[in-house]
Protein backbone atom coordinates (compact mmCIF):
# COMPACT_ATOMS: atom_id res chain seq x y z
CA UNK A 1 0.00 0.00 0.00
CA UNK A 2 1.32 3.42 -0.97
CA UNK A 3 1.73 6.17 1.66
CA UNK A 4 -1.20 8.12 0.18
CA UNK A 5 -3.46 5.06 0.25
CA UNK A 6 -2.55 4.33 3.87
CA UNK A 7 -3.12 7.98 4.82
CA UNK A 8 -6.54 7.96 3.15
CA UNK A 9 -7.54 4.71 4.85
CA UNK A 10 -6.44 5.97 8.26
CA UNK A 11 -8.18 9.31 7.68
CA UNK A 12 -11.43 7.40 7.13
CA UNK A 13 -10.85 5.45 10.35
CA UNK A 14 -10.15 8.69 12.23
CA UNK A 15 -13.39 10.22 10.95
CA UNK A 16 -15.42 7.15 11.95
CA UNK A 17 -13.85 7.17 15.40
CA UNK A 18 -14.70 10.85 15.89
CA UNK A 19 -18.35 10.39 14.84
CA UNK A 20 -18.80 7.31 17.04
CA UNK A 21 -17.11 9.12 19.94
CA UNK A 22 -19.62 11.96 19.76
CA UNK A 23 -22.61 9.63 19.37
CA UNK A 24 -21.65 7.25 22.19
CA UNK A 25 -19.89 9.70 24.51
CA UNK A 26 -16.71 7.60 24.55
CA UNK A 27 -13.24 9.14 24.56
CA UNK A 28 -12.04 9.17 20.97
CA UNK A 29 -8.57 7.88 21.90
CA UNK A 30 -10.08 4.53 22.95
CA UNK A 31 -11.95 4.21 19.68
CA UNK A 32 -8.86 5.12 17.66
CA UNK A 33 -6.87 2.45 19.48
CA UNK A 34 -9.59 -0.16 19.01
CA UNK A 35 -10.23 0.66 15.36
CA UNK A 36 -6.48 0.62 14.76
CA UNK A 37 -6.39 -2.98 15.96
CA UNK A 38 -9.39 -3.89 13.78
CA UNK A 39 -8.14 -2.11 10.66
CA UNK A 40 -4.61 -3.44 11.01
CA UNK A 41 -5.70 -7.06 11.33
CA UNK A 42 -8.79 -7.09 9.11
CA UNK A 43 -7.27 -5.15 6.19
CA UNK A 44 -3.61 -6.00 6.83
CA UNK A 45 -2.55 -2.39 7.26
CA UNK A 46 1.03 -1.91 8.37
CA UNK A 47 2.83 1.12 9.68
CA UNK A 48 5.13 3.12 7.40
CA UNK A 49 7.98 5.52 8.03
CA UNK A 50 5.81 8.62 7.73
CA UNK A 51 3.29 7.20 10.21
CA UNK A 52 6.07 6.25 12.64
CA UNK A 53 7.34 9.83 12.55
CA UNK A 54 3.93 11.49 12.92
CA UNK A 55 3.01 9.17 15.78
CA UNK A 56 6.32 9.79 17.53
CA UNK A 57 5.99 13.56 17.14
CA UNK A 58 2.38 13.35 18.34
CA UNK A 59 3.49 11.62 21.54
CA UNK A 60 5.97 14.45 22.23
CA UNK A 61 3.37 17.13 21.51
CA UNK A 62 0.87 15.38 23.77
CA UNK A 63 3.46 15.25 26.51
CA UNK A 64 4.17 18.98 26.11
CA UNK A 65 0.44 19.72 26.26
CA UNK A 66 0.10 17.56 29.37
CA UNK A 67 2.91 19.44 31.10
CA UNK A 68 1.26 22.68 30.08
CA UNK A 69 -1.87 21.66 32.00
CA UNK A 70 -0.07 20.96 35.28
CA UNK A 71 -0.47 23.58 37.98
CA UNK A 72 3.01 23.92 39.56
CA UNK A 73 1.64 25.38 42.80
CA UNK A 74 -0.83 22.50 43.11
CA UNK A 75 1.93 19.99 42.39
CA UNK A 76 4.06 21.47 45.17
CA UNK A 77 1.10 21.47 47.53
CA UNK A 78 0.24 17.83 46.78
CA UNK A 79 3.83 16.67 46.33
CA UNK A 80 3.56 13.83 48.84
CA UNK A 81 0.43 12.40 47.22
CA UNK A 82 1.81 12.83 43.68
CA UNK A 83 5.11 11.15 44.57
CA UNK A 84 3.45 8.36 46.54
CA UNK A 85 0.93 7.41 43.86
CA UNK A 86 3.44 7.85 41.04
CA UNK A 87 6.21 5.79 42.61
CA UNK A 88 4.04 2.82 43.65
CA UNK A 89 2.39 2.93 40.23
CA UNK A 90 5.82 2.20 38.77
CA UNK A 91 7.42 -0.06 41.40
CA UNK A 92 4.53 -2.49 41.87
CA UNK A 93 4.06 -3.55 38.22
CA UNK A 94 7.80 -3.37 37.47
CA UNK A 95 8.66 -5.87 40.19
CA UNK A 96 5.65 -8.15 39.74
CA UNK A 97 5.66 -8.24 35.93
CA UNK A 98 9.43 -8.86 35.82
CA UNK A 99 9.14 -11.74 38.28
CA UNK A 100 6.14 -13.21 36.45
CA UNK A 101 7.95 -13.09 33.09
CA UNK A 102 11.10 -14.68 34.56
CA UNK A 103 9.68 -17.38 36.84
CA UNK A 104 6.27 -18.14 35.31
CA UNK A 105 6.85 -17.56 31.59
CA UNK A 106 10.53 -18.59 31.69
CA UNK A 107 11.67 -15.58 29.69
CA UNK A 108 15.29 -14.42 29.83
CA UNK A 109 16.46 -11.93 32.45
CA UNK A 110 16.70 -9.06 29.97
CA UNK A 111 13.34 -9.92 28.40
CA UNK A 112 11.79 -10.02 31.88
CA UNK A 113 13.21 -6.60 32.71
CA UNK A 114 11.86 -5.21 29.44
CA UNK A 115 8.49 -6.70 30.41
CA UNK A 116 8.59 -5.02 33.81
CA UNK A 117 9.56 -1.70 32.27
CA UNK A 118 6.90 -1.84 29.53
CA UNK A 119 4.11 -2.80 31.94
CA UNK A 120 5.04 -0.34 34.69
CA UNK A 121 3.97 2.71 32.72
CA UNK A 122 0.98 5.00 33.02
CA UNK A 123 -0.08 6.57 29.73
CA UNK A 124 0.29 10.32 29.93
CA UNK A 125 -1.30 10.50 26.48
CA UNK A 126 -4.44 8.57 27.48
CA UNK A 127 -4.80 10.33 30.83
CA UNK A 128 -4.43 13.73 29.21
CA UNK A 129 -6.84 12.91 26.37
CA UNK A 130 -9.52 11.79 28.84
CA UNK A 131 -9.08 14.83 31.07
CA UNK A 132 -9.25 17.25 28.15
CA UNK A 133 -12.31 15.66 26.56
CA UNK A 134 -14.13 15.52 29.89
CA UNK A 135 -13.13 19.04 30.97
CA UNK A 136 -11.27 17.80 34.06
CA UNK A 137 -7.81 19.28 33.50
CA UNK A 138 -8.38 22.15 35.94
CA UNK A 139 -10.00 20.07 38.70
CA UNK A 140 -8.25 18.67 41.76
CA UNK A 141 -8.57 15.07 40.57
CA UNK A 142 -7.24 16.00 37.12
CA UNK A 143 -4.24 17.89 38.50
CA UNK A 144 -3.37 15.04 40.85
CA UNK A 145 -3.58 12.56 37.97
CA UNK A 146 -1.30 14.63 35.78
CA UNK A 147 1.29 15.08 38.53
CA UNK A 148 1.30 11.40 39.54
CA UNK A 149 1.45 10.22 35.92
CA UNK A 150 4.52 12.37 35.34
CA UNK A 151 6.24 10.75 38.35
CA UNK A 152 5.45 7.25 37.06
CA UNK A 153 6.73 7.96 33.57
CA UNK A 154 9.84 9.61 34.99
CA UNK A 155 10.58 6.41 36.93
CA UNK A 156 9.95 4.28 33.83
CA UNK A 157 12.22 6.40 31.65
CA UNK A 158 14.98 6.31 34.25
CA UNK A 159 14.65 2.52 34.58
CA UNK A 160 14.78 1.98 30.81
CA UNK A 161 17.82 4.24 30.49
CA UNK A 162 19.66 2.83 33.52
CA UNK A 163 19.11 -0.85 32.68
CA UNK A 164 19.36 -0.94 28.90
CA UNK A 165 20.24 2.26 27.10
CA UNK A 166 23.86 3.38 26.90
CA UNK A 167 24.11 7.15 26.31
CA UNK A 168 26.76 8.25 23.81
CA UNK A 169 28.76 11.44 23.27
CA UNK A 170 25.62 13.29 22.15
CA UNK A 171 23.96 12.87 25.54
CA UNK A 172 25.60 15.92 27.22
CA UNK A 173 24.48 18.06 24.26
CA UNK A 174 20.96 16.70 24.68
CA UNK A 175 20.97 17.61 28.38
CA UNK A 176 22.42 21.09 27.77
CA UNK A 177 19.94 21.94 25.01
CA UNK A 178 17.03 20.58 27.03
CA UNK A 179 18.02 22.71 30.01
CA UNK A 180 18.56 25.76 27.79
CA UNK A 181 15.10 25.44 26.23
CA UNK A 182 13.50 24.97 29.64
CA UNK A 183 15.20 28.14 30.91
CA UNK A 184 14.93 30.32 27.80
CA UNK A 185 11.54 29.54 26.23
CA UNK A 186 9.39 30.88 29.11
CA UNK A 187 11.36 34.15 28.96
CA UNK A 188 11.29 34.35 25.16
CA UNK A 189 7.63 33.37 24.73
CA UNK A 190 5.95 36.60 25.97
CA UNK A 191 7.93 38.77 23.53
CA UNK A 192 7.74 36.31 20.63
CA UNK A 193 4.04 35.57 21.05
CA UNK A 194 3.29 39.26 21.50
CA UNK A 195 5.25 40.22 18.37
CA UNK A 196 4.27 37.37 16.06
CA UNK A 197 1.24 35.71 17.65
CA UNK A 198 -2.48 35.96 16.90
CA UNK A 199 -1.99 35.40 13.17
CA UNK A 200 -3.47 32.81 10.89
CA UNK A 201 0.03 31.49 10.10
CA UNK A 202 0.48 30.65 13.83
CA UNK A 203 4.20 31.47 14.39
CA UNK A 204 3.84 30.68 18.10
CA UNK A 205 2.81 27.08 17.36
CA UNK A 206 5.68 26.75 14.91
CA UNK A 207 8.11 27.93 17.61
CA UNK A 208 6.90 25.23 19.98
CA UNK A 209 7.06 22.55 17.27
CA UNK A 210 10.60 23.62 16.31
CA UNK A 211 11.73 23.27 19.95
CA UNK A 212 10.13 19.84 20.29
CA UNK A 213 11.63 18.60 17.02
CA UNK A 214 15.06 19.78 18.16
CA UNK A 215 14.62 17.74 21.34
CA UNK A 216 13.64 14.71 19.25
CA UNK A 217 16.70 15.04 17.02
CA UNK A 218 19.10 15.22 19.95
CA UNK A 219 17.28 12.46 21.84
CA UNK A 220 17.64 10.11 18.87
CA UNK A 221 21.30 11.01 18.46
CA UNK A 222 22.06 10.48 22.16
CA UNK A 223 19.96 7.33 22.78
CA UNK A 224 17.81 9.39 25.16
CA UNK A 225 14.12 10.25 25.38
CA UNK A 226 12.51 13.55 24.40
CA UNK A 227 9.35 12.80 26.39
CA UNK A 228 10.57 14.01 29.78
CA UNK A 229 12.18 17.30 28.68
CA UNK A 230 9.07 17.95 26.58
CA UNK A 231 6.89 17.51 29.67
CA UNK A 232 9.08 19.81 31.75
CA UNK A 233 9.10 22.36 28.91
CA UNK A 234 5.30 22.29 28.93
CA UNK A 235 5.35 22.60 32.71
CA UNK A 236 7.47 25.76 32.71
CA UNK A 237 5.24 27.20 29.98
CA UNK A 238 2.05 26.49 31.94
CA UNK A 239 1.88 29.96 33.49
CA UNK A 240 2.17 31.62 30.09
CA UNK A 241 -0.60 29.49 28.61
CA UNK A 242 -2.77 30.04 31.69
CA UNK A 243 -2.66 33.73 30.78
CA UNK A 244 -3.19 33.10 27.06
CA UNK A 245 -5.95 30.52 26.84
CA UNK A 246 -6.66 31.19 23.16
CA UNK A 247 -3.09 30.20 22.23
CA UNK A 248 -3.48 27.05 24.29
CA UNK A 249 -6.77 26.25 22.57
CA UNK A 250 -5.28 26.63 19.08
CA UNK A 251 -2.36 24.35 19.95
CA UNK A 252 -4.81 21.76 21.28
CA UNK A 253 -6.87 21.93 18.10
CA UNK A 254 -3.85 21.27 15.90
CA UNK A 255 -2.76 18.35 18.09
CA UNK A 256 -6.14 16.66 18.50
CA UNK A 257 -7.34 17.24 14.93
CA UNK A 258 -4.27 15.90 13.14
CA UNK A 259 -1.45 14.53 15.28
CA UNK A 260 -2.91 12.45 18.11
CA UNK A 261 -5.27 10.30 16.00
CA UNK A 262 -2.27 8.85 14.17
CA UNK A 263 -0.50 8.19 17.47
CA UNK A 264 -3.39 6.15 18.84
CA UNK A 265 -4.07 4.40 15.52
CA UNK A 266 -0.44 3.32 15.26
CA UNK A 267 -0.69 1.85 18.75
CA UNK A 268 -3.53 -0.34 17.50
CA UNK A 269 -1.73 -1.28 14.29
CA UNK A 270 1.12 -2.76 16.35
CA UNK A 271 -1.16 -5.49 17.72
CA UNK A 272 -1.03 -8.85 15.93
CA UNK A 273 -4.25 -10.67 16.79
CA UNK A 274 -2.87 -13.89 15.30
CA UNK A 275 0.05 -13.96 17.74
CA UNK A 276 -2.26 -12.99 20.59
CA UNK A 277 -4.85 -15.69 19.86
CA UNK A 278 -2.14 -18.33 19.80
CA UNK A 279 -0.93 -17.21 23.24
CA UNK A 280 -4.06 -16.21 25.15
CA UNK A 281 -2.82 -17.84 28.34
CA UNK A 282 0.41 -15.84 28.28
CA UNK A 283 -1.56 -12.70 27.50
CA UNK A 284 -3.81 -13.22 30.52
CA UNK A 285 -0.81 -13.79 32.81
CA UNK A 286 0.92 -10.62 31.61
CA UNK A 287 -2.26 -8.57 31.88
CA UNK A 288 -2.76 -9.70 35.48
CA UNK A 289 0.92 -8.99 36.15
CA UNK A 290 0.35 -5.38 35.14
CA UNK A 291 -3.16 -4.65 36.38
CA UNK A 292 -3.21 -6.40 39.75
CA UNK A 293 -0.25 -4.55 41.31
CA UNK A 294 -1.42 -1.28 39.76
CA UNK A 295 -4.86 -1.56 41.33
CA UNK A 296 -3.65 -3.00 44.64
CA UNK A 297 -0.85 -0.50 45.28
CA UNK A 298 -2.42 2.67 43.88
CA UNK A 299 -5.94 2.51 45.33
CA UNK A 300 -5.09 2.96 49.05
CA UNK A 301 -3.00 6.05 48.30
CA UNK A 302 -5.45 7.44 45.74
CA UNK A 303 -8.37 6.95 48.12
CA UNK A 304 -6.49 8.73 50.90
CA UNK A 305 -5.55 11.61 48.59
CA UNK A 306 -9.04 11.99 47.08
CA UNK A 307 -11.79 10.01 48.79
CA UNK A 308 -14.45 10.87 46.23
CA UNK A 309 -12.43 9.88 43.18
CA UNK A 310 -9.94 7.30 44.38
CA UNK A 311 -11.29 4.63 42.02
CA UNK A 312 -11.28 6.96 39.01
CA UNK A 313 -7.67 7.96 39.73
CA UNK A 314 -6.63 4.34 40.24
CA UNK A 315 -8.14 3.19 36.95
CA UNK A 316 -6.54 5.95 34.88
CA UNK A 317 -3.19 5.42 36.62
CA UNK A 318 -3.45 1.78 35.46
CA UNK A 319 -3.43 2.72 31.78
CA UNK A 320 -0.39 2.32 29.55
CA UNK A 321 0.59 3.21 26.01
CA UNK A 322 3.40 5.63 25.18
CA UNK A 323 6.35 4.40 27.23
CA UNK A 324 5.00 0.85 27.21
CA UNK A 325 5.19 0.80 23.41
CA UNK A 326 8.57 2.57 23.41
CA UNK A 327 10.02 0.03 25.83
CA UNK A 328 8.61 -2.94 23.91
CA UNK A 329 9.85 -1.60 20.59
CA UNK A 330 13.31 -1.00 22.05
CA UNK A 331 13.38 -4.60 23.27
CA UNK A 332 12.39 -5.88 19.82
CA UNK A 333 14.91 -3.74 17.92
CA UNK A 334 17.70 -4.68 20.36
CA UNK A 335 16.96 -8.40 19.97
CA UNK A 336 15.97 -8.76 23.64
CA UNK A 337 12.44 -9.98 22.83
CA UNK A 338 11.04 -11.68 19.72
CA UNK A 339 8.02 -10.65 17.62
CA UNK A 340 5.60 -12.83 19.59
CA UNK A 341 6.74 -11.40 22.90
CA UNK A 342 6.52 -7.91 21.39
CA UNK A 343 2.94 -8.51 20.19
CA UNK A 344 1.93 -9.81 23.61
CA UNK A 345 3.44 -6.84 25.44
CA UNK A 346 1.94 -4.29 23.06
CA UNK A 347 -1.47 -6.00 23.31
CA UNK A 348 -1.32 -5.83 27.10
CA UNK A 349 -0.35 -2.16 26.85
CA UNK A 350 -3.25 -1.41 24.49
CA UNK A 351 -5.74 -3.38 26.61
CA UNK A 352 -4.57 -1.50 29.69
CA UNK A 353 -5.25 1.75 27.82
CA UNK A 354 -8.74 0.73 26.69
CA UNK A 355 -10.31 -1.33 29.48
CA UNK A 356 -9.55 0.72 32.64
CA UNK A 357 -10.39 3.96 30.80
CA UNK A 358 -13.71 2.59 29.57
CA UNK A 359 -14.62 1.46 33.10
CA UNK A 360 -13.54 4.77 34.62
CA UNK A 361 -15.59 6.79 32.14
CA UNK A 362 -18.64 4.56 32.35
CA UNK A 363 -19.01 4.27 36.12
CA UNK A 364 -16.60 6.60 37.93
CA UNK A 365 -16.33 9.76 35.82
CA UNK A 366 -16.47 12.93 37.96
CA UNK A 367 -18.82 15.74 37.01
CA UNK A 368 -16.50 18.52 35.83
CA UNK A 369 -18.71 21.47 36.80
CA UNK A 370 -19.47 20.04 40.22
CA UNK A 371 -15.76 19.43 40.80
CA UNK A 372 -14.92 23.02 39.92
CA UNK A 373 -17.54 24.32 42.34
CA UNK A 374 -16.17 22.12 45.12
CA UNK A 375 -12.59 23.19 44.35
CA UNK A 376 -13.60 26.85 44.51
CA UNK A 377 -15.29 26.35 47.88
CA UNK A 378 -12.25 24.52 49.24
CA UNK A 379 -9.92 27.24 47.98
CA UNK A 380 -12.12 29.91 49.56
CA UNK A 381 -12.23 28.03 52.87
CA UNK A 382 -8.45 27.69 52.86
CA UNK A 383 -7.99 31.40 52.18
CA UNK A 384 -10.39 32.31 54.99
CA UNK A 385 -8.57 29.98 57.36
CA UNK A 386 -5.24 31.54 56.36
CA UNK A 387 -6.58 35.03 57.01
Element-by-element helix/strand order? HHHHHHHHHHHHHHHHHHH
User: Which whole number gives the mean pLDDT?
Assistant: 88
Task: Return the domain count.
Answer: 1
Report the CATH topology name. Answer: Na+/H+ antiporter like fold
Number of strands: 0
Number of helices: 19
Any low-confidence stretches, pLDDT <50, length ≥5? Answer: none
Largest sheet: none
CATH architecture: Up-down Bundle
Helix content: over 70%
The coarse silhouette is globular
Subunit arrangement of the protein? single chain
User: Strand fraction band?
Assistant: under 5%
Distance between the termini: 67 Å
Any idea what the radius of gyration is? 20 Å
Structure description:
- This protein has 387 residues and is mostly helical.
- It has one domain (3-386): Na+/H+ antiporter like fold.
- It is 82% helix and 0% strand.
- It has helices at 3-24, 28-42, 49-69, 72-77, 79-104, 109-119, 124-133, 140-163, 171-196, 203-222, 227-236, 238-243, 245-269, 273-277, 280-305, 310-317, 322-333, 339-363, 368-386.
- Helix 15 packs across helix 18.
